[in-house]
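S.,

Sequence below, as promised.
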Amino acid sequence: MAEKKSDRTRAAILAAAKERFGADGYERATIRAIAADAAIDPAMVMRYYGSKEKLFAAAADFDVRLPDFSGVPKERLGEALARHLIERWEADDTLRVLLRTAVTNEVAAERMREVFAGQLAPTLRKLAIDEPAVRAGLVASQALGFALCRYILAFAPIVNLPAGDAVAWLGPTITRYLTSPVPNQD
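The prediction came back faster than expected:
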């Protein structure tokens, strides 16, 4: 089936929005600039998406696509999760858009929370891991810190780290977050 012109226009707007939000952040990105990048009239952006907020929500739609980890031994779970997250980030720059923007924009920050709380915590719950929300938050702190250093701040040693080495470094820490006993609270 042939792609409709409206589908091509919508895709061009979305691609331009991802680039612009990623480069400029939410606050500085404008509908006019996004439209110019997509080589269309700004009114078309509004026609397809309605508002800057709705366009951002579409551009920042990131599915972690967590696989079924039920067959993974608990001592290898952090490695499997780290590998999966790195592969997703390498394949889709949407996380970079979210990460860059979440620091200064509450809509983006909420979306980032939804991604990790809404996708990771239920997976941990299915694996019968206790305190899944807390552990998902700890995993997010490690994973997002790594992503920030690799993709946004571009720390040379982290940018240049081969994916397999990154998994080897991150895996044990994530495993500890997922499997260590809950600390006693005084």
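The chain has two domains: 5-59, 74-179.

Coffee later?
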